[in-house]
Amino acid sequence: MADVDVGKLSYAELVALKTKLEQEIVGKREEELKVLADGYAKKLIAAGFGIEEGIKALLPYTEAKRRGTATPSTSTARVLYRDPANPENTWSGRGQPARWLSQYVSQGRQREEFRVES
After folding, report:
1. Residue 68 has pLDDT above 60, yes or no
2. What is the per-residue DSSP string for the chain?
3. How far apart, in whole angstroms, are the C-alpha atoms of residue 35 and residue 83?
4. pLDDT at 73
């Protein structure tokens, strides 16, 4: 991997690099998720299980993630912030900041970096 001295880049070059990195991150995420899903499917089939059985076996893990909310959100608030590493992670700017956004801020990043352009 080539090291880039970001301190020597102009603002425009940094923004272009950021955009390219965000696109690469999304692409790699999808690619790696597909590889993992394919491997999981092959293991299920080799063990004599169906894909749907495997998905049902994963449900407790997804339910644990949702615990703490009595009902799913039905809000139609406009998305103001999006996680470049996982575009499914969004925040409308209402209520407490999303965990993913709070983690980025605690790492020294600015909230406005994640603002969706309108």
Report:
1. no
2. -----GGGS-HHHHHHHHHHHHHHHHHHHHHHHHHHHHHHHHHHHHTT--HHHHHHHHHHHHHHHHTT-SS-----PPP-EEETTEEEEEE-S-SSPPHHHHHHHHTT--GGGGBPP-
3. 22
4. 57
Are 37 and 20 part of one and the same domain? yes
Are residues 66 and 77 both part of a single domain?
Answer: no
- Structure tokens that stand for 44 in this block: 């299920």
Q: What is the pTM of this model?
A: 0.43
pLDDT classification of 64: cutoffs 50, 70, 90? low
CA–CA gap between residue 40 and residue 79 (Å, rounded): 33
Q: Please state the length of the chain.
A: 118
Q: Do 64 and 87 reside in the same domain of the chain?
A: no
Distance CA 72, CA 77 (A): 14
Q: Which CATH number covers residue 89?
A: 4.10.430.10
